[in-house]
Amino acid sequence: MAKKIGLDHVQAIAPYVGGRPISEVARQYGLDESKIVKLASNENPLGMPESAKQAMMKAASDLGRYPDSNGFELKQVLSKRLAVPEDWITLGNGSNDILELTARAVADAGDAVVFSRHAFAVYPLATQAIGAKAIEVSADANYGHDLPAMLKVIRSLGDQVKLVFIANPNNPTGSYLQPDAIQAFITQVPENVVIVLDEAYNEYLSPEQRYDAIAWVRAHPNLMVSRSFSKAYGLAGLRIGYGIAQPALTDLLNRIRQPFNVNSLAQAAAIAALQDEAFLLKGYELNRAGYAQLTKAFEQMKLAFIPSAGNFVLVKVGNDDQAGARVNQELLKRGVIVRPVANYGLPQWLRISIGLPEENAAFLEAFSQILKDEKVLA
What we know:
Blueprint: H1 8-11, H2 22-29, E1 37-38, H3 50-59, H4 72-82, E2 89-92, H5 95-106, E3 112-116, H6 122-129, E4 133-137, H7 147-157, E5 161-167, H8 179-188, E6 194-198, H9 213-219, E7 223-228, E8 241-244, H10 247-256, H11 264-274, H12 277-300, E9 305-306, E10 312-316, H13 323-333, E11 336-337, E12 339-340, E13 349-353, H14 357-371, H15 374-377
Parallel strand pairs: 1-11, 3-4, 3-5, 5-6, 6-7
Antiparallel strand pairs: 2-8, 7-8, 9-10, 10-13, 12-13
């Protein structure tokens, strides 16, 4: 009998599955790629800003050399923007990298890591990868983080807890946490527990929703704020994100990160994108208009949806646990890719990324046709 290869806690991991690529759906269903609409991965429908393209092309002339391992120029821009020292910043291969590096740096096999039900799939994956215990706390009535319940669990487990993940806005639900609630939570978490505040969708918050998380970092050495260039800045394919924390935390991450974890093209594009305020504003306004377009249609269809502070909307498409899968399958046949979320414990729902007006319209047309088919909804 062959001996088993690999660690048990690694074999128990269900690999992360991203939104299906357009080319894959085209092959499977015999569709024209150019006519497929992808609203599955919360990507920026505007694509990459022209400023970032130009910066990337310039950087491409020197790809025979390794990238700057410390990301000096990008950290300078971020440092000025965030008003923090450069050694408070860690660059990552996407913000996923920051989440995973933090887990590896502060938790070990047998330690407890706390996060909310219906929260980003990478939190349990990062936990399982190090052999730690995943402690999933039930969500509140609106499918969002129940911070008092999470705090209660942290206190009950005592020194077992090494790390807690919270997201604002949350993916896949879009739920928004009030700043006062987050600040109160951070203040009450024991100082030996590291808190990761995942702000991958931070730039989509409305002016009245925005708050200064960096001020909390200055006050709390156990807080890490993670952000991404994949969404609002349109650089998903380049894989770049960053974390902000005091040096005690960033020093740990720098000890274990890969030495060249952010490539030269990504660094150049991120510097340009950060300074392209016009692109960021255009994307924000497009997102708000698209949110109104989708949610107005859902209201007319009398479908439940969760108010979202991100660039996506979670909509309930049926009452049984196969509803999401059935509707998703019918959408794929019609060349529309969205995100089923049964793996998040939400099998009756679909997550719809907000696209261009014509992409949103194409989805709504296909979706409305499907909803008229009693066989699909049965």
